[in-house]
């Protein structure tokens, strides 16, 4: 270990995981699930840069005007 890092700093309960890319393609997400996902992303600060919701069942409202900022949002071929 590096002298500046103590072994206790490497325990799982101290890890901070930052998600940058999330691929949920083909996960059968429904319009209701999409609404919940949008609400969660809007109310929580996120480092998420890319979200793939392709091949799901997002319905008519789908991903209209999401209020969070992404570099890439994929949602083609949704029913």
Automatic annotation (TrEMBL):
Domain of life where this protein originates: Eukaryota
Name this protein carries in UniProt: SPRY-associated domain-containing protein
Matches recorded under InterPro entries: Leu-rich_rpt, LRR_dom_sf, NLR
The keyword Repeat belongs to this UniProt entry's keyword annotation: yes
Source organism per UniProt: Amphilophus citrinellus (Midas cichlid)
Keyword Zinc-finger: no
Keywords: Leucine-rich repeat, Repeat
PANTHER family per UniProt: NACHT, LRR AND CARD DOMAINS-CONTAINING (PTHR24106)
